[in-house]
Amino acid sequence: MSIFIDDNTRLVVQGITGRDGSFHSKQMMEYGTHVVSGVTPGKGGQKFENSVPIFNTVYEAVRETGANTSVIYVPPVGAADAMMEAADAGIELVVCITEGVPVLDMTFVYPFMKEKGVRLLGPNCPGLISPGKSKVGIIPGRICTPGPIGLVSRSGTLTYELVYQMTRAGMGQTTCVGIGGDPINGTNFIDCLSAFERDPDTTAVVMIGEIGGTDEQEAAKFVKEKMTKPVVGFIAGQTAPPGRRMGHAGAIISGSSGTALEKMQAFEEHGLGVAERPIDVVGLLKERMK
Amino acid sequence: MSIFIDDNTRLVVQGITGRDGSFHSKQMMEYGTHVVSGVTPGKGGQKFENSVPIFNTVYEAVRETGANTSVIYVPPVGAADAMMEAADAGIELVVCITEGVPVLDMTFVYPFMKEKGVRLLGPNCPGLISPGKSKVGIIPGRICTPGPIGLVSRSGTLTYELVYQMTRAGMGQTTCVGIGGDPINGTNFIDCLSAFERDPDTTAVVMIGEIGGTDEQEAAKFVKEKMTKPVVGFIAGQTAPPGRRMGHAGAIISGSSGTALEKMQAFEEHGLGVAERPIDVVGLLKERMK
Amino acid sequence: MRLARGQAITGAKLNIHEYQAKEIFRSHGVPIPPGDVATTPEEAESIARQFGGTVVVKAQVHAGGRGKAGGVKLAKTAQEAKDVASKILGMKIKGITVEKVLVTPAADIATEAYVGIILDRVSKKPVFMVSPAGGIEIEEVAATTPEKIMRLPIDSRYGLRGYQAMELGFFLYSDVKQVRAAATIMQDLYHAFMDSGASLAEINPLVTTPAGEVLALDAKMVIDDNELARRPSIAALRDESSEDPSEVAARQANLTFIKLDGNVGCIVNGAGLAMATMDLVKYYGGDPANFLDIGGSSNPEKVVSALRIITSDPNVKAILFNIFGGITRTDDVANGIVTATKANPLKVPIVIRLTGTNEEIAVKILTANGFSAMTDMDEAVKKAVALATGKAA
Amino acid sequence: MRLARGQAITGAKLNIHEYQAKEIFRSHGVPIPPGDVATTPEEAESIARQFGGTVVVKAQVHAGGRGKAGGVKLAKTAQEAKDVASKILGMKIKGITVEKVLVTPAADIATEAYVGIILDRVSKKPVFMVSPAGGIEIEEVAATTPEKIMRLPIDSRYGLRGYQAMELGFFLYSDVKQVRAAATIMQDLYHAFMDSGASLAEINPLVTTPAGEVLALDAKMVIDDNELARRPSIAALRDESSEDPSEVAARQANLTFIKLDGNVGCIVNGAGLAMATMDLVKYYGGDPANFLDIGGSSNPEKVVSALRIITSDPNVKAILFNIFGGITRTDDVANGIVTATKANPLKVPIVIRLTGTNEEIAVKILTANGFSAMTDMDEAVKKAVALATGKAA
Asked: Which residues contact B112 (CB under 8 A, 6 or more apart)?
């Protein structure tokens, strides 16, 4: 088992003919993801890599190819529309890779998704991978291996780092989910934690947070109150200065709120394992899974 | 029993110090409605008729007086805001009497009410009355009398006419509801019919429609499929010319759709009693209630 | 496919002229060829001369089917424009006299499409309707080839989204440049619709030229009357010369009035009761001469205006009042009747039915002034019909 | 009460000057006294002379607490304005040199309130924060008298509704005229916020005058960087003279860079990994000299720019590369290092950790050019810290 994506995932790629879209579509196809269609307005009727039909609209792609999941690689200015188009067309899971989406756009997109009952991952996220089954987004497939650990993270390359260390230590993953670094995103830690709690194949979870906001604190509370499985957490940004945005639009300490310390304390308080260094995650997992 | 309003109705009047608002507030108070507060921005702290406290906002009125129902007598340009304010403040039933609300405003108000789970009656409606219990709006109390008939209508004075004839014939009412003559309104025939169907004290229902739209046709279908109680219908506008708005913003025949004939045929088809003249309603009711 | 127009919220609202709608669309960015309005053949000639080349001369009236009625003509020269304008100016289209023509350069047309937005009561939303079969009335397309119409409801909370505009564009065109041009026009039209408080906005035809440009050649717009109070610049577009004078007078008196061809003049309070009264007139063999709702607040002056409007119709053979006093005070109505008939004695019989608020006072006033009053609607209508048709009640 | 600011989406985005924010607010209808910008004491004098009477001279810098720092002064005469301006121009406020002052007529003040809008990550909405305790920083009010702050999240699908604007107004004032004036200002401010793509818009203080007028005396606005591509007129407001030169250079090279005071220069791909790298530097006893994310697409030029920026910091005693190749090709990074160091030989030691895409090629390139490469993050950080601090790893 896995969460959000599996062998039944039928993927449409929005922006399939763009630089990033085409590169990652090939990667996903190589990994075994069922890429059933692509969308690029004006290129309807063509084929990607001589096999994947391209449509002008997501609506057509869904109608013609039964896509149930979409991944978005369009420029920031069109990303809000792309997300809403996917939801409107009947897609169940929308994964928006695009970085740089204006936050005000998300104040429209977020309630739209809620109204439609559609799960949105991102924007500004690396997507997700259920090793051995399906990969949607840009997480490198070769660093992952199937196994019992669920991973959820606000970061991209830091996720790779941790997955890599876990894989090297022989700890495979059910699903690795990057929820994205933007301040308003579709799916939060708690959504993923509760999915992992329900997933029978996941036996422990790694949660990678960073400075900014209070999602990690709330997630820690959720872990204590609702979860039976062990959770190990890591927070990036202990050395981040207040008031500066650390790359991710959401990674900012405002006043005294959103610091790494505060988040690590919340982890401690609610019984999560707290990794001081990335490398500590593996050890803590082993300890807690005994 | 009755529908939507009863002895537990605690009413706040929005626009209580205006010409219409003050007149009808007095009428409602005389009828026995629990008018617990009024709202007029800038008159907070004053009292209406030396007894009803006035507030600057509905939020305050709800907090201070436990109002659960609101009635709106504000000018058209402020009506959309008044409806949304009431819903936002926690009011459960909003009755908008105001006529002349721009229809585009309602394309925002309608989904707002749905999101908040608030029942809206109107706009451009006479309100409703549960004879002997409570009256919210402008239906004259003295033409009504308690009894077993439910009445729902798109019209104001035509409702009075029919209620008057029913009362004269000894047929009292559980609740008389005017849903309003505007093309986009909060509550439709089916909402009221299903409430009457659930109300144990209502034994038969009168439905008064008019030209424009297809609500009556859908309501007739609902009667056949979902109702056990007899329903008698009347449609105004058999002589209305196509393409002209007959007073009510919603009363217009467009193309071949929305005619009185079409609606009366739908009534016939689905087994409702069809009154050719207003006066026939009483006879049909008697027949069907045997 | 259900035709949204049947559910459209349009009709007796503010119609504005083509040239006015074009000005609004243009100000929102819709590409529209230039044009100027003429009220005389000479003006038309001089406008045509300025543009040079072939022009189209188009009657400016609030009526569909102008083309079929001969209200739209090509003119190859300025002289021809003058001749054509002299024929169109003054002609009657669906009963309305043409007072103005729009003169605009003729465009080369490759394809004609239809684009419209209506306010739809079923979805409770503005709805786009587009069709690649433009240039003819959309009702005709709906009747014959409904599959050629795409309907798209727009949630006004989110506005017309770019992807929706593109979907509409793809329904019309396959060339992606034209699709994008059309999508931009959809956005512009949507903003024009929302910003003007419209209940209908239409481009028919939206054409492509042989060079591939996408242009709006015609424009139509209907405004929700309820918007006018907060949009004075739109309200100022009303052209009363193109409306029935009795309806203009009624509007000025705050009466809702629609003229018909019957013999029984009806004065009623409330729209539903007014319609029911008209229906009952018909039921008993008469013909209603009008719809007239004096509304809720019944000051005597309104009644005076109502009587003036009704009695100016020579077809009216009897007048019927049907007043159910709720907010309306029946004594106000009675006073209005007395005042009006003193100033202008009636030439046709009158039947007065009133009941409700202050009924006793009203009856006293009427009786003192030689009128009799009834309380039953059915009886009153029967009597009025009998008086109008000369048959015994 | 939770202070929304703690959740605000603000910070390292585009800050604009007070006078620029005022211009935007004014164009949306916010009542703001006139004002002009001076870059020399003489200009300040002449502006003050034009206004006549007492003026306020205000430093235009992107920093809070200007007043406390002496960056805001009253001047009763034009001469005094010149003197005051000559003191303020050139002074440093929180490390930033004042290059411009705003000269504006002094207003008579009866009351001072605070009005702000921030983008809030918890409610995922723009949130109004207003307080009758204005003129001081809102954080201070939140800390001492939180009950004096009203927070109101706005659903941008419906916009700021009139009733909400009135509620905010009633929280500030009791006189209904002032409430209405404030409500209108809330609407104007909201539109300015939305139309500019802001993440913060603030009026502090919003004052009432003894005559009862409501006026905005100060204005602050922060723009979401992601909005700039579609809002060129806002993007043009950026004043690079008020920013750190190394950050300007980084932005021009499409790098995300934040300067700190440490001794280990960090070049990383990905924001999360960059932060984790800095934390690890600290963990092992070093101090990160910066945050630097080269982003996903790793063309060698970016690496060259990154090295140029890092090496221009004299505090940097060692350079640490930490690259996890996913989209980023590690061979691109290796090529960038080689190119950059050939052009400008390094004066400090460098530690390179890379793994992932094209790792083997990268290692070959580096080795061929005399660099050694590591694959373990922990080891690499330890080594860089040792080199920077002079202690054995």
From this structure: B83, B84, B87, D158
Sequence-ordered strand ranges (E) for D143-217 = 150-153, 198-208, 214-216
CATH of the domain at A30: 3.40.50.720
Return d(Cα B13, Cα D329) in angstroms, integer.
68
Contacts of A251 in chain D (CB under 8 A): 271-272, 275
Residue A1 lies in a domain: no
Q: What's the helix, strand, coil split of chain B in %, to 5?
A: 35, 25, 40
Determine the Cα angle at C170 with ends C167 and C172, to 5°.
120
Which amino acid is it at C133? A
* Residue pair A108/A136 in contact by the 8 Å Cβ criterion: no
Q: Is D334 helix (H, G, I), strand (E, B) or coil?
A: helix
Of C224, C268, C280, the CB nearest to B104: C224
Active site residue D43: no
Asked if D161 lies within 8 A of B82 by C-beta distance, the reply is no
Does C272 contact B110 at a Cβ distance shorter than 8 Å?
no
D179/B41 touch (CB, cutoff 8 Å), yes or no: yes
- Chain A residue numbers with beta carbons less than 8 Å from the beta carbon of D270 are 155-158, 247
Residue A247 sits in a domain of what CATH number? 3.40.50.261
User: Between chain C and chain D, how many beta carbons pairs sit less than 8 Å apart?
Assistant: 3
A130 assigned to some structural domain:
no
Specify whether B189 is located in the same domain as B269.
yes
Per the structure, the complete domain to which residue A79 belongs is given by: 10-121
Distance, in Å, from the CA atom of D82 to the CA atom of A141, rounded to the nearest integer, reads: 66
CA distance to partner chain D, nearest, from residue A183 (Å): 6
Amino acid, res. C351 = V
**Structure-token pair, residue A137:** 């987004």
Residues B94 and B143 in one domain: no
Considering only the beta carbons, identify the residue of B154, B161, B250 that sits closest to C324: B161
Among C298, A251, A186, CA closest to D275: A251
What total of structural domains would you count in chain A? 2
Three-state SS at C257: strand
How many CA within 13 A on the CB side of residue A286? 11
Instruction: Indicate whether B253 pLDDT > 70.
Output: no
Active-site residue identified among D114, D173, D190, D284: D114
Instruction: Assess if residue B105 is contained within a domain.
Output: yes
Strand partners, C206: C113, C216
ipTM of the complex: 0.93
Pseudo-torsion of CA A84, A86, A89, A93, nearest 10°?
Answer: -120
Q: Per-residue confidence of chain A (290 residues) as pLDDT tens digits?
A: 799 999 999 999 999 999 889 999 999 999 999 999 999 999 999 999 999 999 999 999 999 999 999 999 999 999 999 999 999 999 999 999 999 999 999 999 999 999 999 999 999 999 999 999 999 999 999 999 999 999 999 988 999 999 999 999 999 999 999 999 898 999 999 999 999 999 999 999 999 999 988 899 999 999 999 999 999 999 999 998 876 766 666 666 565 678 899 999 999 999 999 999 999 999 999 999 87
Q: B188 and B111: one domain?
A: no
Residues B108 and B235 in one domain: no
Same domain, B69 and B184: no
Nearest CB to A77: which of D230, D256, D326?
Answer: D230
The residue in chain B having the minimum alpha-carbon distance to the alpha carbon of residue C268 is B157
Sign of the torsion formed by the C-alpha atoms of B163, B165, B166 and B172: positive
Q: Are residues B91 and B191 in the same domain?
A: no
Question: What is the spatial distance between Cα C218 and Cα C200, in angstroms, rounded to a whole number?
Answer: 14
Closest C-chain CA to A42: C176
> Using CA atoms, how far apart are residues A74 and B39, in angstroms rounded to an integer?
49
Residue D256 at interface with chain A, using a CB cutoff of 8 Å = yes
Q: Do A144 and A111 belong to one domain? A: no
**What domains sit in chain C, N to C, each tagged with a CATH number?**
1-32+109-242 (3.30.470.20), 34-106 (3.30.1490.20), 244-389 (3.40.50.261)
